[in-house]
Specification:
24% helix, globular
Length: 122
């Protein structure tokens, strides 16, 4: 089963990962990729560089450029995990969060992917 783990951050906090955090995260990513439990992961650029595309009832589409003032927490990155259960996906996510140490206040949302995976190799 595949799960999406989304890390939520407070973009206004301006917290930047240390070199040590990046090195530790690199080791964890390498291990989980090698063992097949990490399918894909990436951080996301700031909302100031993004856009929201919205479909309104009646079919009208609007585009709003970031940043998004009404948003307190945003998705700062993601990981697609291969796990035997939700409990295992949660444990893998706990490992990602533990790497951050004690100076960070972040959370992840873990959700199972549903349906066929389009564009993925079998």
């Amino acid at each position: 089963m595949r799960f999406l783990s989304m890390i939520r951050i407070n973009e206004a906090a301006g917290q930047v990962p240390s070199e040590q955090l990046m090195a530790d995260m690199g080791k964890l990513i390498e291990e989980l990729t090698r063992t097949g439990r990490l399918v894909s992961t990436a951080g996301l650029r700031p909302t100031s560089e993004g856009a929201r595309v919205r479909l309104h009832r009646g079919g009208r589409l609007t585009v709003t450029d970031g940043p998004f003032a009404e948003t307190k927490e945003v998705i700062g990155g993601y990981a697609i995990l291969e796990a035997q259960s939700k409990a295992e996906a949660v444990e893998l996510t706990r490992r990602f969060l533990k790497v951050h140490g004690t100076d960070w206040d972040v959370e992840c949302e873990v959700r199972q992917l549903d349906g066929a995976e389009v564009g993925c190799k079998p």
